[in-house]
Amino acid sequence: MNTSYILRRLFYGLLLMLGVVVLNFLLIRLAPGDPAVVIAGEMGGATEEMLESIREEYGLNKPVLTQLGIYIANVAQFDLGESFFFNQPVTTLIGHRIGPTILLVITAQLLSIVLGVFLGVIAARKPNGPMSAFVSVFATIGYAVPVFWTGIMLIILFASVVPIFPVEGMQSVKLRDAGFFVKALDVLHHLILPAFTLAIIYLAQYARLSRASMLEVLGSDYIRTARAKGASEGSVLFKHALRNAALPILTVAGLQFGNLISGALLVETVFNWPGMGRLAFDSILRRDYPTIMGVLFFASFMVVVANILTDLSYRLADPRLRGR
Amino acid sequence: MSDQSVTEFKAESPALEAWRMFRRNIPAVIGVIMLMVIVGATLYGTFLYGGDPFEIVWAPHEPPGVTPEFPLGTDYLGRNIVAGMLTGGGPTLAVGLAAAALTMVIGISLGALAGYYGGWVDNLLMRITEFFQVLPALLFAMVLVTLLSPSLWTIALAIGVVSWPQTARLTRAEFLKIKELEYVTAARAIGARNKRIIWKVILPNAAPPLIVSATLTIGVAILFEAGLSFLGLGDPNVMSWGLMIGANREYILDAWWPVTFPGLAIFFTVFAVSLIGDGLNDAFNPKLRER
Amino acid sequence: MSALLEIEDLRVTFRTRYGEVTALDSVSMHVNEGETLGVVGESGCGKSITALSVMGLIPSPPGKIAGGSIRLNGEELTTASPARLRAMRGPDAAMIFQEPMTSLNPVFTVGDQIAEAIMLHQKVDKAQALKDAVALLDRVGIPSPETRAKDYPHQLSGGMRQRVMIAMAVSCRPKVLIADEPTTALDVTVQAQIFDLLNEIQRDFGVAIILITHDMGAISEMADRVAVMYAGRVIEDASADDVLDYPQHPYARGLIDCIPALGRDDHRLAEIPGVVPPLHLLGQGCAFADRCAFKQDRCTREKPLLGSHGHHPVACHGIEEARL
């Protein structure tokens, strides 16, 4: 893999982010009414002085292009404006919330890929066996269940019937003064239900995808070669076949990341998980546009980063693409 | 092993062949029946059953199966859940269909142009597509709905605007494949215009995967609408399954039924749609099925 | 002395959408130590199925060995355990395939793939196995083997890849090497080089070779003995010279007539009319009857058996009766 490719990819990512900033700018102006009032938020009870200072800060009296320039310059300095509802800079607000979201999304992603691929590989060994039937039924069901409803059903189950997992929040109040290790375990304990809820849809999809991908790879000539040299069934499946079948799975994993963030938004709301999704929900109910735009910006940023990482790892995993 | 079946030649149109395959696919037929029942219930149920889903008719949190008048019980305000179930399907299905239609129109148009013309058109359209894929769909849709103020139309519009990129990619891939085939060259050779080749020659041949994709898009759009309504971003004057779940969310530990039944309704609707989608997929690709 | 590899009355069936189909029917052939057996016939006649049966690599399901025996060094393979078959692939029997382009795993270096074969059957560490792999690459005529060993398959030409396949196949000094149309996918000039290499390998390693081909030219150059197959049966079995000079079965005669010979410019190249019938449409009689110029009534009613009717064993009513 060469540096010029990485640089090109980073530059392209930067362009996409510029696009998001421009979109944010346009969306505020799309909203009916005075942009200053929109920015202050309908429920902010904005005074005339406040609106004046917003107009000043965003250059709302200047030509539109100048306004756009000012907006881009501000974002470039990580100034996404002030939330008039929370009375805090948007970047500070999001800074507190982005960690839990990343934790949730990455855990769900790993959970769904590892379990899904495992199920898919097992199913692919017998294309007409019971495991294959289970995977395709499970995938169809997983696709059809609304993620927020799965969360609610799990809350009902684990809050009253088998109370072994906490169903709300990220930390126990009573452990506020505990040591780091205990706190970390506590967070993991809280993480189980939301992460599983979010993972379950994608788990089903990865299982179906990796089953199909494995079936295709298992029919290829080089698998016959591996068998012909006496490789064991485990080595054939997990070494020779999976390394090749993983390539389409990796592509989908990259494309799914945006959907995962959308799902996280619902799951965070259901489980009161203190992340960006919950923040987006709260700020949308209050028409707190600077915060909403900030969340949109950072969520897109996460997708762009995930896409770049997927691209690079794809190139590492497939020798045919290296050095290009 | 040679396996060419000389004896199996039947002069049948591909659509008819697909229909035969589909009819024999039991899960797909179950899907069709399920969907017909659900659509029938939402279309006629309201008239036959009557009842305003917003009207408070009984004590709150009446469990299901206790009072014969309210077989599914009442919600936290004492509203009839059966009435909500029957009227709540309409908006969900309508928005799902409208949003899927919009998604397909945008996606197919842009994908067809990109795949057919290639070059800078393709480049530009694909960059736009990638840009839309970077925006987390639900979040973007929430922003759009909030800005445009929620109604069934704005929700359908928002879902369509955020969902088209996948359709565009699929259409583009099909067009790239088909435009190289002989019958397209032949159409060009007899002087057909680009517009005609795109819509009358290539598109019908790209139809099978697009029909499957359209079906699955309806399912996604229904889930999308449910998610938005659940978050309270639906039309507040229209009862929908998502809204029922969202409204009763705070009380799930006191009463499981007001959230469970509408959730099941959403699940069975999307499940039926995806069974149909899978059945269509199998019907259009009989070879895949034999594996 | 009994033969190194003995196939007796082998019957292999496949489950297809037309019901159970017999892909091999009472196939018998043998290979002696150090000799080359040519197996010829059109595509779909069962050559590759025979080879895969010996390797224990019949895709199952849908295929299965329904009867007969395969003995390698006196050991019965049709009833051997999967573990025993695995241990046997490499040190006892090895195989190279028709498609060198797809027979190597695209995500591993060729050195790694050869070293894996070595490590599967010999107690050596990775470093030693890689060293042996380089030596083997050198042996099969690959220039600068140290650097090539670090290449991925896509970086090599088709001829080079087939050399890699040969190196991998002989890495565990097999007693019998099955070459399934090893040159069909290669350029004509490269074909001769590969045949030369196989001859050298046979001389140096003392390995018996089963050469599967539809190229009678290759047979005349390589084979000591020949088995001609048609529609899942052996129809003629004799020394290469006998088959080439005195072909008995009308099908074998047709095959010989298809060889373009130098200085025979007055002849048009002959061809055999028609195609091999699909296996599920095989009837009572001789499978070749529909294409045969010497068809008699009996040919459509009764399957001819392989028997020494004349010069050498052949399965044909016509020959049988002419000699009665």
TrEMBL record, chain A:
Domain ABC transmembrane type-1: 98-314
Lipid bilayer topology: Multi-pass membrane protein
Subcellular localization, as worded in the UniProt entry: Cell membrane
Chief place where the protein resides: membrane
Gene3D superfamilies for the chain: MetI-like
Xref: InterPro entries: BPD_transp_1_N, MetI-like, MetI-like_sf
Entry's family note: Belongs to the binding-protein-dependent transport system permease family.
Descriptive protein name: Dipeptide transport system permease protein DppB
Organism, as annotated: Falsiruegeria mediterranea M17
Gene: dppB_1
TrEMBL record, chain B:
InterPro entries, A to Z: BP-dependent_transpt_permease, MetI-like, MetI-like_sf, OppC_N
One GO BP annotation of this record: transmembrane transport
Keywords: Cell membrane, Membrane, Peptide transport, Protein transport, Transmembrane, Transmembrane helix, Transport
Top-level taxon in the UniProt lineage: Bacteria
Membrane topology: Multi-pass membrane protein
Annotated family: Belongs to the binding-protein-dependent transport system permease family.
Annotated protein name in UniProt: Putative D,D-dipeptide transport system permease protein DdpC
Organism expressing this protein natively: Falsiruegeria mediterranea M17
TrEMBL record, chain C:
SUPFAM superfamilies: P-loop containing nucleoside triphosphate hydrolases
Entry GO CC: plasma membrane
PROSITE patterns: ABC_TRANSPORTER_1 (PS00211), ABC_TRANSPORTER_2 (PS50893)
Domain named ABC transporter: residues: 5-256
Membrane topology according to the record: Peripheral membrane protein
Recorded superkingdom: Bacteria
Gene Ontology terms for molecular function: ATP binding; ATP hydrolysis activity
Cellular compartments annotated: Cell inner membrane
Name this polypeptide is given: Oligopeptide transport ATP-binding protein OppD
Phylogenetic classification of the source organism: Bacteria, Pseudomonadati, Pseudomonadota, Alphaproteobacteria, Rhodobacterales
Gene that produces this protein: oppD_1
